[in-house]
Amino acid sequence: MKASDMNWRLVITSIFGVLVLCGCSHTQSRPLPNGKVLLGISISERERLVGRLGFTNGYGGYIKRDSEGERLVFSMEEDVTVQPRTARLVVVAAKDVHVNPWRIANERMADDESMAVWQNLTNGAWQVRSGEQLPKDTYFMDQSGEWILLGAKGRRPWLAKLDTPTVVSAELPQSGTFISIFANGQIVHVFARRGWRNAEGPMKYLVYDFSRVGSQPIKEMTLLWARAAIDMDPETEIVILNDNNNFWGKTWLMDLKTDKRTLLHLWGGPDWELFVKKEVALKWIELTQP
User: Fold this and answer.
1) Are 234 and 243 in contact (CB under 8 A)?
2) Could you give the CA distance from residue 99 to residue 76 in angstroms, rounded to a whole number?
3) What are the φ and ψ backbone dihedral angles of 213, each rounded to 5 degrees?
4) Could you say which of 123, 186, 232, 257 would form a disulfide bridge with 211 (CB–CB 3.0 to 4.6 Å)?
5) Residue 240 CB partners (closer than 8 Å, separation 6+)
C-alpha cells in the first residue's frame, strides 16, 4: 500500500471517529459565568418528558427558553388523533414543571408565560400580546423579552417594543431575512445576514441600548466566518455560532467581549443547545433521565 493511500485511510478513520463521538445526542452541560449553563438537549429527552407528563399521544415541538434562561418551554399537541386539535405549553423551571393551555399557531412565549406573538390561522395576520393585529404586509421575524423584530416588503426590518409593534425603536442598517435577536432589559443584540447562503453574507453583529437617546447601535461587528446564531446569553455576551465553511461546517462558542472562540463540535451534537440558569439545567436533567 502506498504511503499516500495509508495516510488517506487514516484521515477517513479519524473523521469517522469524530462523527461517532459528535453524533451522539445526549444531555450535556457546560458551566458558564454568572450561574449559567450551556445545556445540550436531545429529542429523546423531550419525548421522555412528554410521556411522563401523561401525554402518550402527544407530539413535542421545538424547545426554546425565555430571555432570562429561567424556563425551558415547548408546545405540544395533546393528541394528534383527536379533532379539533388542542395544544399545551410545557414549562420547565427550577422548581417545577407545569403545563399551560396553549394555541396551535406560529407563536412565541413571553417571559411571563403569556403568548407574546402568534399568527391568526384564519387570515394569516400576526397579533401581539396587547391585542394589536399587525398590518397584512407586516411579518414577524423574531422576539426576545419585551422586544420584537418585524419586517415588511420594501423596507428594512425594525425593532419595537412587544406591546407597541408598529412604533419603530430602531431600523436595522440593511435589509435581511436571516436575523436573530437576544434581549436583556433595554439592550438588544442582533445577528443579521441577508440570507443563509454564503453569497448573502457576511453576518453583522449589532448592539442597541434603548436606555440611551437615539436609535443607532452602540456596537457593530462584522463576522465574516459566521452563518447562524444558534443562541446567545446577553448577560455573559457568549454566543453559539455556526460557521459558513462549505465543506465542513463547525459550531463555535464565542465570547463577544474577547473575540475568543472555542470549538463545540464539528458535526451533529445535541438537537438543541440553549443557555439557561444552572438550576433549570439540573431540573431538566432530573426530569428527563432514562
Assistant:
1) no
2) 10
3) -80, 140
4) 186
5) 38, 229, 230, 231, 232, 251, 252, 253, 254, 264, 273
- Containing structural domain, residue 65: 30-288
**Domain count within the chain:** 1
Is residue 20 a part of any domain in this protein?
no
Q: What span, in angstroms and rounded, lies between the C-alpha atoms of 77 and 27?
A: 24
CA-to-CA distance for 230 and 242, rounded, in angstroms? 7
Contacts of 82 (CB under 8 A, 6+ apart): none
184: CATH? 2.120.10
Predicted confidence pLDDT, tens digits, the chain (290 residues): 444 443 434 333 333 333 333 333 345 789 999 999 999 999 999 999 999 998 877 677 899 999 999 999 999 887 767 777 788 999 999 999 999 999 887 899 999 999 999 998 888 899 999 999 999 899 999 999 999 999 999 999 999 999 999 999 999 998 888 999 999 999 999 999 999 888 898 999 999 999 998 889 999 999 999 999 999 999 999 999 999 988 888 999 999 999 999 999 987 789 999 999 999 999 999 999 99
Cβ-Cβ contacts under 8 Å for 100 (sequence gap 6 or more)? 88, 89, 91, 113
**Encoded amino acid at 61, one letter:** G
Asked whether residue 4 is domain-assigned, the answer is no
Is 218 part of any domain? yes
Return left, alpha or beta for 113; rule: phi > 0 is left, psi -120 to 50 is alpha, else beta.
left
Residue 23 forms part of a structural domain: no
